[in-house]
Amino acid sequence: MFENKERTDIAELGEFGLIKHLTQNFKIQHESSIKGVGDDAAVLDFSEQQVLVSTDLLLEGIHFDLAYVPLIHLGYKAVQVNLSDIYAMNGVATQITVSIGISSKFPLEAVEDIYKGIELACNKFNIDLIGGDTSSSKQGLVISITSIGHAKKEDICYRNGAQEGDLLCVSGDLGGAYVGLQILEREKLIFLENPQIQPDLEGKDYIIERQLKPEGRRDVVDLLAQLKIKPTSMIDVSDGLASEILHICTQSDKGCTIYEDKLPIDPVTYETARELGLDPTVCALNGGEDYELLFTIKQADYEKLKNDVDISIIGHITDKNSGCRMISKSDVVHELKAQGWNAFKK
Amino acid sequence: MFENKERTDIAELGEFGLIKHLTQNFKIQHESSIKGVGDDAAVLDFSEQQVLVSTDLLLEGIHFDLAYVPLIHLGYKAVQVNLSDIYAMNGVATQITVSIGISSKFPLEAVEDIYKGIELACNKFNIDLIGGDTSSSKQGLVISITSIGHAKKEDICYRNGAQEGDLLCVSGDLGGAYVGLQILEREKLIFLENPQIQPDLEGKDYIIERQLKPEGRRDVVDLLAQLKIKPTSMIDVSDGLASEILHICTQSDKGCTIYEDKLPIDPVTYETARELGLDPTVCALNGGEDYELLFTIKQADYEKLKNDVDISIIGHITDKNSGCRMISKSDVVHELKAQGWNAFKK
Fold first, then answer.
1. Reduced to 3 states, what is the DSSP secondary structure of residue A267?
2. Which CATH fold would you assign to the domain A10-155?
3. Rounded to 5°, angle at Cα A107 from B82 and B136
4. Which end of chain A has less neighbouring CB within 10 Å, N or C?
5. B321: DSSP letter
6. Pair B294, B237: CB distance under 8 Å
7. Per the record's keyword annotation, is Kinase included, yes or no (chains A, B) (predicted)?
């Protein structure tokens, strides 16, 4: 991965030198970041706002495969995955802490690449890096990020507020990240068998990017604020649409009906799923890693959203006893099940 | 490690089932914890207080060795290491998030043990567990904790406030955690050569406990508040006294003089270091992991602290040009160097 690049031994810098080196270009952008990297703890000030905190752990071999994930993309995605949780609360993300464990086989340039990706995400989404921890790892690459944000108390969207009759909405399109991963896995196998063959990713840019470089939907949070819509519940689609719908219904003590023909699936996702012998609907329901926002709105808000091409209304909330159902294109009723990603499956 | 115990496969529970199972006994104790585990992000409310955030990553084979670290102690220590950073800001620690990556070889009972230790620490130090992430790991055990706390703006102690003439103080005693580790390492080697030999830890309880079960010094923060002393700078002793003194002096743009005969070293630490052929002073200066608090106070505060047996005054702050020096018992001047723990040394 770094054969032709310059290699600097991380041990030369030591832990404090490494942190300083990696974080020196990060600028503090928020008034709430009173003190960032360089003391025992960061100091933040959010007067009259509630603070939002979320954390994610990414492990090599479980959450990513360095055979096809470029390190810059990995850094970028690690941040996005975290910010997405803050947006899913209808909040403003403002700070992150980043802890990294790195194999001693990694040269400094590799860690720099990860931090370049982190920096890109921080700059694009207006985030301050305020702390972290850097260590050697005997066990492959480990990235742990905690994101911090804020919101007014009355603006925060929990998962438990969906009411009967509310409309179920989802941003963007679904299944792309999963189908993109299948393509990357296929090309990896081909490469392992014959390293001379170049990967065939033609026409797959969109879904490869959905997998490698997802974007947290801050724009959707902004749009909802502009339209003066406060969702009654919200969650981000990390494990798969079906799993997330069940979280909202379980926590709100409700049921739902969604319609297969309303699920937003990009043509590239659809065609590639078919090529690979996969059902595009199953990819959309259970694929995960799309980092779109799933939310419920009152029917009274329908007029404000109905013409937005980026938001799909895929169904509605029902009473609990009706269960969680999907009506297929051929009008068959299916029970929704969470078959999303389980990190503990062997 | 779990040969004679019940074994439950974690995959049976899945990620959400596991988180629910592990966190169900944790009670929310703080009014500032508006929403804990169970949504995309935790929601906190600290009106008119500044928020403190710190994070640490603990990796198997780097930060701990499961050959001699009981999992309950590991969970307990992982929390303490984090709280210590909040106390080092003169803050009140209130919440933590815990992310864990676990080998699929681990049964549920092993993870439960880690969480028992986390729970003990939370209960003892009045901390709310408010979120986290749980994943399988192909790479050994990974624990990442982020701690959150608060303080009034005017009470926060940074590392950069030490002034010429200020007194350098340290709580408790030093070097014990390091010497305890040497004993554990010695007994591990003996065990590997001959598993029939029982470990010989007689009389070493104190230093073994210093290594396996350190305590964040919240009591020192409380004491300083009672005595109405605000340290001019403060840091916790995680990497070693010399390294921490140099952080304070560098960030405060000052020098210092400390006295070897003032360094607080417990008799068990002293005798055991000698047994092992180690210099007790070097252990105190460079051992690390003591999690005591190192701080500077104005000379005017001397009278308030001088009779406290738990606080040692080990030297004073000088101008920058005098450098950072230790006067030995035989009146020789040594330059202080950070030889603390470097996770990147090979």
1. helix
2. 60s Ribosomal Protein L30; Chain: A; (3.30.1330)
3. 50
4. C
5. G
6. yes
7. yes
The dihedral sign for the CA sequence A147, B88, B63, B22:
negative
Candidates B116, B100, B148, B125; CA nearest to B26 is B116
Q: What are phi and psi for residue A5, nearest 5 degrees?
A: -105, 165
Q: Using the Cα atoms of residue A291, residue A296, residue A300 and residue A306 in order, give the sign of their dihedral.
A: positive
> Which of B10, B55, B137 faces A146 most closely, judged by CB atoms?
B55
Q: Cβ B18–A344 below 8 Å, yes or no?
A: yes
Tens-digit pLDDT profile for residues A79-90: 999 999 999 999
String of DSSP letters for B271-286: HHHHHTT--HHHHHHH
Tell me which DSSP letter residue A142 carries.
E
> Is B340:B243 a contact under the CB 8 Å cutoff?
yes
Nearest to B137 by CA among A107, A99, A137, A184: A137
Taking the CA of residue A334 and the nearest CA in chain B, the distance in Å comes to: 23
Contacts of A89 in chain B (CB under 8 A): 39-41, 43
* B37-57 tens-digit pLDDT: 878 888 888 888 999 999 999
What distance separates the 2 farthest-apart alpha carbons in chain B? 65
Average pLDDT over residues A30-42: 85
% helix / strand / coil in chain A, to the nearest 5?
35, 25, 40
| Strand partners for A60 | A64
- What amino acid occupies position A214? P
Partnered with residue A101 across adjacent β-strands are A135, A142
In the block, which residue shows the tokens 């028992």? Answer: B116
Closest CA to B122 of B82, B89, B85: B82
Q: How many CB pairs under 8 A join A and B?
A: 236
Residue B333 DSSP symbol: E
| Token pair 């926590």: residue | A251
What's the pLDDT at B228?
97
- B226: which residues sit within 8 A by CB, 6+ positions away? none
Nearest Cβ partner for A45 among B51, B97, B138: B51
Residue B344 binned pLDDT confidence (cut-offs 50, 70, 90):
low
Q: What is the largest CA-CA distance in chain A?
A: 65
Summarize pLDDT for B7-32 with one digit per residue, the tens: 778 777 777 777 788 888 888 888 88
Specify whether the CB–CB gap between A273 and A175 falls below 8 A. Answer: yes
Asked if residue B346 has pLDDT above 50, the reply is no
pLDDT at A68: 87
Secondary structure letter of residue B98 according to DSSP:
E
Domain layout of chain B by residue ranges: 10-155, 167-335
The SS3 assignment for B165 reads: coil
Nearest residue of chain B to residue A237 (CA atoms):
B40
pLDDT tens digits for B92-109? 999 999 999 988 778 888
B176-193 helix and B205-212 helix, angle to the nearest 10 degrees = 100
At the top level of CATH, the class of A167-335 is alpha beta
Which residue from B minimizes the CA distance to A135?
B343
Using the structure block, give the residue that is written with the tokens 């959203």: A305
